[in-house]
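Intended use. Records like the one below are meant for learning the mapping from a protein sequence to its folded structure. Do not use them to infer anything beyond what is encoded.
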Amino acid sequence: MTSTAVLLVLVVIALLVAVIAFDVFTLGTKGRLNALKQWQVLIGTMLGFVTGAGVLAISSAIQDETQVRRDREALVQVGTALKVEASDLDSVLARAQLLRDTLMPSDPHKPAGCSGPVNELVDAFQRETPIYSAAVPNFVRVGEPNLPLFVSFYAGFEELARAAKQYGDNGCPVVAKETVALFYGRIEAARADFARIAAIYK
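Structure written out for the chain above:
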C-alpha cells in the first residue's frame, strides 16, 4: 500500500511536469519565458497540493498496513486460543481410543451396559466451545485460511459427541463391528485435523 501511494504521487508530479513542458516547448523561443512566468504561481500551488496529497496518501497507506498487521497478529492469537480449546477436545478423543473395547463392545458375549469410565467419557464429550463460537464470525469476516480446518475438526467432534450421547442414552448396547470401525474412523479423522491445527499454531 505504501509503495502504491508513493507511485501515485510520483505519477501525478510526472504528469504535471509533462503538461508544463509541453506548454512551454510548443511556444516559440520568445514565448517560453512568458509561459514560465504564467505557470509559476500555478506550479507553486500544484506542488503544495501534490505534496499535501502525497503526505496524506502515504500516511493513510501506513495506517492501513499497520491495521492489517495488527489484524493478522490478532488472528494468530485467536487461532492459538482455539488450538488450546481444541486440545481439550482432542484429549477426549484420545481417551475414547484407549477405551475402544470398553466403550463400544462388538463381542455379543460381553454384557451391555455403561460402566463408570464409559459414563465419564460420554459426559466428557458434552463440551461447550465458547472460543470457537466467538472466533468463527471473525474468521469468516477476514477470510482466515485455516477456518475450514477448524470447522472440520469441531464439526467432527460435535458429530462424535452426539453419537456418544445417543449411545449412552441407549444403555451402551453391543454394536456391530462396522459401527465401531466407523465411529473410530471418525475419531482418527478428527484427530488428524487437530494434528494439522497443532502444527500450524505451535
